[in-house]
Structures are given as C-alpha cells and as structure tokens.
C-alpha cells in the first residue's frame, strides 16, 4: 500500500529534479512561483505532508532548533516592522497595488519558501541519516544537471559555433514538461539552458556546484571530475557575471579544503603543477586569443569600469543606493516588509536614471505592474526591516556557515563531504544574495533542513555520520 510519506517523498524528488525548469507559463495566482516547475511539486508535497501530520496529530518540525528559532524571529519581525509602519503602509499605492496588498503578497512568498518548502524538506529527511539524505538528493540533482548540460551544450553549438542545423534537435526538448526553447543571440549573447534567462542559469549553477564538487570526495574514477568541468564550461558560455564570481569563490574554497585534507593534498598539488604547465603551454600557442577572451570576461565583472556604460549596472547600483537612502530615514524598523519600492522612487539617483530605459519604461512606469527589483537582499532588508531585521537575517545566513564548518572539521574522513557541500552552498547563497532580492532560493532552504538534520546526528554522535 502506498503511504502518504512515499507520495510526498516522490513529489519532493521530482521538485528537486525540476529546480532549473522555469521557462513556461504557469498559474498566475502563484505570483513569483508561477513559472517555477519545482514549486508545483513542492507545494503538492507540502499539502500531502501536512495532511500526514494532521492525521498523526503531531507536527513534525524542529521549531526548537536555534536556526529555526532565528528564522521564526525574522518572520515575526517582518510582521512587527510592518505594523509599526501601518500608517504609511495603509496609504501607500504604487503600480496599481496598495501597500497592504504588497505586504500580504511578499509575506506569502516568504512563507512558501521558508515555511512550506522547509517543512516538506524536513519531513522527507527526518527519518533518514544525513548521509543517506545527501546521497539521495545528490543523485537526483545529478540527473537533473545531466539534462541541463545536454541542452546547454546543444545551445552552445548553435549560439557560439553556428551549428544552426541542431535547432530541430533542440526543439525535440519541448516534448519534455516545462521546456520552451529560446536562444540568446541579441545584445547579450549567452546560454540559459532550460532556465528562462542567462542569470537564472547562473543562479542554478551556483546551487549545483558544491553538490557536483562532492563527487571528487566520493568517487574514484577520472569521471568524478566531469561534473565540475561541465559546470565551468556552462558558466563560461552563459555570460552570467554573478555565477562567474561566486563559482570562482566556491572553487577557490574547495581547493583550500582539498589542500587541508591529507588524503587529497599531494594529488591536488600535482594537479596544480600539471595545470600550471598546461596553461603555460596553451598560452604560448593561443596566448592572444585567450588573453582577449579573459579580458572580455573580466570587463563584464568590472563594475567600477563600466558603471556609467552598462544599463544593467546603473539600474542595479541605483536601486541599492535608493534602498540605503530609505534605510537612513528609517534605520531601526525600516518602512515595512515589501514596502521598499513605495519609498525608493524619490531617491533614485540621477546618474542611474539618466539615459536608462529600464527606469523610464519599467521602474517609474505606473502602467508597468511588475515592481522593480532591488538587486540586493541585504540593502532591501535594511530599507524594509531596518537594522533589526537585517541582523536577524544575517545571523540566519552566517550561522549555518559556522555550523557547516564545524561539521566539516569534526566529521570522519569518509563523510567530510557532507560538511563541504553545506559549507560551500551556504557561502554561495550568502554572496549571491548580494545581487538578488528574493527568498525563492530552493537550495538555501533545502540545505538549512539538511544542516538541522546533520546537527542532530552530530549531537547524537550518530554512527551513520561518522566518528567525532
């Protein structure tokens, strides 16, 4: 007989597989989740999981764990800061949306990720060991990544190498659920695979990198290096600046981990030596072409150099500047959760709005209903939740990094990769939130649930996690 547990576990695994799939027209009432394939499976899974909990007359959720306590305090503060500012919230109106309506929508969005999804994730893994949970999830992520990679390589062949005859092959992917073809050959050339835009692919690659790196710990064959090699290729051709920065940081930290681990130290040093010789040889043969390509990539991430030239950078830093100006006026409590856009308009700097179609056509246009992105979670929270809310969120982001580092240092050699996955993941999310402003980061909430489970195994000195 099929149990409710089996049903929501299957929905959970399907959701993990479909995390990168977000280029389709979904149900509009789901708001920012409407085009996210994973969200449909996770929401259905949550419904089944909560039903099981109700029937069992017990709610299975680690609400006493320090990390979950911080999360609950943060959510409560977003409500309290909004109530403190109720006078302005109740009278705000922008882009055909009232302040109260905006608060409700943003709170629902937060609760879906931080509440519903985290609840589902916990119920799936609570009866498994952390090692078994990690291996199960990693296998599904690998299958999904293979699909993304095959699509991405065909896209590279078409966009960068002119193999237009492969377009019919790419069209065959549309028979797969949640896939719609789109090629980026306009003013910004790159690939997005099954995601809806170039930065979305970058966001996915940041999430998947630590999981693929962990195969270097657990596999013996040369193929263990294949996943990270593919990630580097996809990142290079995606033209996703944030992914290039964050993944480079993750790789550097992973290199330090390998050098610290006596099992891999000598092998890593030898690989670095061989790599240095290979790079030198390639530079001797194709030096000019490689240097030009490298300079082009570096120019893309040199924000100070192209701030006045890049529309994207002007919009990004203009929004962050305006958010900080709002914070200066409301430093303790902020202006209320989801209310930043109502107060930022007077603070848009001239250097950001001048000759910038994004502000005139989208951000300042009252008929364009989508609210402007704030491009940075930390500056957004400073404006909306004040210093109190930002501190709570920063603790929620920083504390998992500390705990993951603890797990890595204390775990047995055989299971150190668990701590490495979590450590690199949380660092990646923390840095990535410097350039995105939404809580819809499935990987963060998944890793949070996994970390709580790992800490419980750690506390109980579980033999399934290793000797401490």
Automatic annotation (TrEMBL):
Coiled coil: none annotated. The keyword Membrane applies. GO terms for cellular component: membrane. The keyword Membrane applies. Residues 230-393 form the O-antigen ligase-related domain. It is found in: Membrane. It is a multi-pass membrane protein. Keywords: Membrane, Transmembrane, Transmembrane helix. The chain crosses the membrane at residues 7-31, 37-55, 67-88, 108-128, 140-166, 198-217, 243-259, 271-291, 381-405, 417-436. This is O-antigen ligase-related domain-containing protein.
